[in-house]
Design goal:
By secondary structure, the protein is of the alpha+beta class. The protein contains three helices and ten strands. The strands form two sheets. Strands 5-6-2-1-8-9 form a six-stranded mixed beta sheet.
């Protein structure tokens, strides 16, 4: 009976969460960004605000790249890096994106902005795992807290 009640409660109040991993490779100065979101939430958020530019878009890659450029930002010492969508996988439940950005030669701080679905849900949680050399930190971004600065040097 308790399991049935818990299931009903979960259906009435869905979880709004995304997962993001940001890994820095110091040998080639490349940031690799992995993003995982629920498909239904992604489509709802794109309908609300497609991203950096208005459509129409030539391909799904262009559409998703446009969406992500508005929702995920990585800056080195205040300078925004250009994230490039390398590819994505999807099924009926979720979308998984891989992006990449080239970093500079010397870095003192890295700022991450994560606004995935924060305009759509007030209770949105965006879990991020940030790795840069010896630094590894998890952080929960919310609709009210979308920016995190890491001192890396």
């Amino acid at each position: 009976m308790k399991i049935l009640l818990l299931t009903v409660v979960m259906l009435l109040h869905p979880v709004h969460v995304s997962l993001t991993g940001i890994d820095y490779n110091s040998e080639n100065r490349i940031y690799t960004v992995f993003v995982k979101v629920y498909t239904d939430d992604l489509e709802s958020d794109i309908k609300l605000n497609p991203g950096c530019k208005e459509g129409p878009f030539a391909s799904a890659d262009d559409r998703y790249s446009n969406y992500l450029c508005d929702r995920i930002v990585v800056k080195e010492d205040g300078k925004q890096l250009g994230l490039k969508l390398l590819g994505y996988e999807s099924d009926a439940l979720e979308h998984r994106f891989t992006l990449e950005a080239k970093g500079g030669k010397t870095v003192n701080s890295v700022t991450v902005i994560n606004c995935i679905m924060t305009r759509l849900y007030e209770d949105q949680s965006n879990m991020v795992l940030f790795r840069f050399n010896d630094i590894e930190e998890g952080y929960k971004f919310t609709a009210a807290d979308t920016l995190r600065k890491y001192i890396v040097k």
